[in-house]
Sequence to fold (353 residues):
Amino acid sequence: MEFDEVYKSYWQKIFRLCMGYVNDFELAQDIAQETFIIIWQQLPKFRNESNIGTWIFRIASNNCLRQIEKEKRIIKTDLPINLREEQQESIEPKIQLLYKFISELPEIDRLIISLELEDIKQVEIANIIGVSEVNVRVKIHRIKEKLTQRFKENG
Amino acid sequence: MDNSNIDFTAIWQQQKVVELNIDELQDKLNRFKKNNLKKLIFSNILLITTIVFVIFIWYKYQPQYLTTKIGIVLVILAMAIFLLVYNKQFSSFNKIDDTQTISNYLKSLTELKTKQKYIQTTMLNMYFIMLSLGIGLYMYEYTLMMTIFWAFFAYGITLTWIGFNWFYIRPKTIKRQQAKLDELISKFEAVNNQLNRE
Fold:
């Protein structure tokens, strides 16, 4: 697979994954770009042994975790001020809330739920993370419960 | 609890996404390569110049004593080893497989940091010992040509400087490096524990 092709088909997904991880537009862009630099470096070594999606999401997730190593960056979890006054009919506040809540989860949970919401099969998520499928299913269920709870608390 | 009333996937996928921009990425890629190269070149030039300078002294002043020659070799060796380790940090040494599972990646990260801790401390100690010993031996021949007073003075100054480095700078550097790595290790372990938690 050509790099350009990979870039085009995965940019949005990877960006959202990073966005779920940090909930900061600029930082997410940086991390997503870094991810593609790694993909670019590694792509010649990719053998078709595994699914390219699994392979790419592993790189992206690992790169998100690698951020721990970087200087502590301030992670924005607050909502923009004007948002609170906006009418709840629009979908926009819901998107922001969802990403905010996800970015507040423990690191691994952030990655798992992001992958789930990208419609990746649970067996593949298990393959990306390196745990059993059952474990993934249980975790996803709990995370969704937690998110629903948070949404309810926020009316 | 019922999750079905909120369609998270639908909300998730409506997040605004930064436009993809292959030129910007290409720019970033080039800058990334250039920066790594710059760091590498700078440290190499610095150390190679020092080594060349020491070799030049050897030829120019033709030392007679074996101690002087051993001194020079030790100093060069100390720098060469430093250079080697420094360069390696940019290549294979720091590399871990980005394409492994998250679980294995976290283990590799922890291992890497533990290894770095050991190497940093050992290297720093070795570097200081070899450099100090080398300088001490190297000076011997030349201090013999001085009066007793100046010989003591020269060694006194050098030993004070070495002592300051060994007893103050070195432990401080090691402590700083270790604290940073320890913090990372415990953070990686904490994340890894999230995997095992049911």
Notes: The two ends of chain B are 18 Å apart (CA to CA).
